[in-house]
Amino acid sequence: MKKQQFKIDATQSIIDWEGRKITGSHNGTISIKQGALTVNDGQITGGTFIIDTTTIKVLDVTDPATNAQFAGHLASDDFFSIEQYPEATFEITAVNNNRIEGHLTIKGITHAVSFEANVGVAGDVLTASGHLVIDRTKYGIKFRSGNFFNNLGDTLIYNDFDLHINLTARAAA
């Protein structure tokens, strides 16, 4: 069995996010700060990565002032509280075929999550991608959630948001 360590290349890795509300959706990116993956015989068996919440960007709002206001709101205590929690983390706890299980920590709150991943290893480069659906209210993000507030009408924001993770990692020397 060949065991390798791969260091995540933060410049080549990104998370695309999408959140939905009654009247539409918004999307953007958030950067991965660092991380490492353990691979046995070409299969991921463990690892962790750190998400830099201070890098959250909104891509679908083109007006600069509105974009800055929206990004600031996502950074606020209504959403990700980035001054207090500048990082989120994901730690792999188990892998079953292409199903990754792990602990996702956002705002200091940890929950088990799982998702299907596509993983490829070519020489000393590993690529991996996966899609998670996260219930934001489990992480204390309750702003305009129908679970906590009444009569929101068309200002309601759905609890679930999507994370599309795309990682590139290089074999450690």
UniProtKB/TrEMBL annotation:
Organism: Niastella vici
A Pfam family reported for this protein in Swiss-Prot or TrEMBL: YceI
PANTHER family named among the record's database cross-references: PROTEIN YCEI
Name of the featured protein: Lipid-binding protein
Domain Lipid/polyisoprenoid-binding YceI-like: 5-170
Tree of life domain: Bacteria
